[in-house]
Amino acid sequence: MSKSDNEGSFAVSTIGLTKDFEAMRAVNNVNLNIARGLFYGFLGPNGAGKSTTIKMLTGLMSPTAGRIEVLGIDFSENPVEVKRQIGVVPENLALFDRLTAFEYLNFVGRMYGLSREEVAKRATELLEFMELTNNPKKLIVDFSHGMKKKTALAAALIHSPRVLFLDEPFEGVDAIAAKTMKDVLQAMIGNGATIFLTSHVLDIVEKLCTDISIINRGTIVAQGSIEQLRAGVFADSDALAQASGKKLTLEEIFIEIVGGGREQPENLLSWLVE
């Protein structure tokens, strides 16, 4: 399928996406319509269903019910074609530790059908950009956590995906490595790609993402641009509405939507403040 096919479709679309684990429903009737070219944030507290959702969207897990389309392609009918079009950086990375970074990128590129010459060229460029060329014989097992994250991102990019899924890509990454990664991601958006990001680092999400969904207990509880979510929080909260001119941060929006009204028991941790 050429890049011009299905241009009018969404980058990612789900209808009734649901996942059950025995008696527990982890994801409940999730409906998403993510336009092409967006930097899309997918947020939620621990255990809300974020990672389960992203695993279904990338074919790592089958849904119990519902439908997934990526770039207008039905995932259940054409899984291989969808996987050709997407890149994935999973939370657990799943790298081949006994390879060098170049060997790993070469393997991934060849699996995507790139020629030896092209994969060598792209791998070299990616490693240089990610600043992973100082010790070319060093095995991935000996990399720092940040180096592993950058290697995983390079592998997800080597085939030039049109949709990139990132599950906690900045967790445990230092400021320098994070800056490099953000530069790469912004360049992708500038080139028309779509990025689907899950992260607990809300200040990074606020700076990068234009549109956001918030999931809680498996159900989408808010969707829209940050400005739309901010307006919704003001409309729903008299106390916040009285704060004339106040611009809520994404963290404040998130806490109000997911944790608003949650009361702490009296004398909680009183032994710490006695």
Any overview of this molecule?
The structure is a single chain. The chain has 274 residues and is an alpha/beta fold. The protein has a single domain (12-221), classed as Rossmann fold. It contains eleven helices and ten strands. A hairpin with a 2-residue loop joins strand 9 and strand 10. The longest helix has 16 residues, at 175-190. The model has no long low-confidence stretch (mean pLDDT 89).
Layout of SSEs?
Blueprint: E1 12-21, E2 24-34, E3 39-43, H1 50-57, E4 65-70, E5 73-74, H2 79-85, E6 86-89, H3 101-111, H4 116-129, H5 145-157, E7 163-167, H6 175-190, E8 194-198, H7 202-208, E9 211-216, E10 219-225, H8 226-236, H9 238-241, H10 250-259, H11 270-273
Helix pairs in contact: 3-4, 3-5, 8-10
CATH architecture assignment:
3-Layer(aba) Sandwich
CATH topology: Rossmann fold
**Biggest β-sheet strands, sense, barrel:** 6 strands, mixed
The poorly predicted ranges are none
Q: What is the CA-atom radius of gyration, in angstroms?
A: 20 Å
Helix content: 25-40%
How many angstroms does the end-to-end distance come to?
A: 67 Å
Number of helices in the DSSP assignment? 11
The overall number of domains is 1
Mean pLDDT: 89
Q: How many β-strand stretches?
A: 10
Oligomer classification: single chain
Series of H and E elements: EEEHEEHEHHHEHEHEEHHHH
Beta-strand portion reads 15-25%
**CATH homolog superfamily:** P-loop containing nucleotide triphosphate hydrolases
The neighbouring-strand order within the major sheet is 6-7-8-3-9-10
Helix- and strand-based class?
alpha/beta
Principal-axes shape call = globular
The CATH class label is Alpha Beta
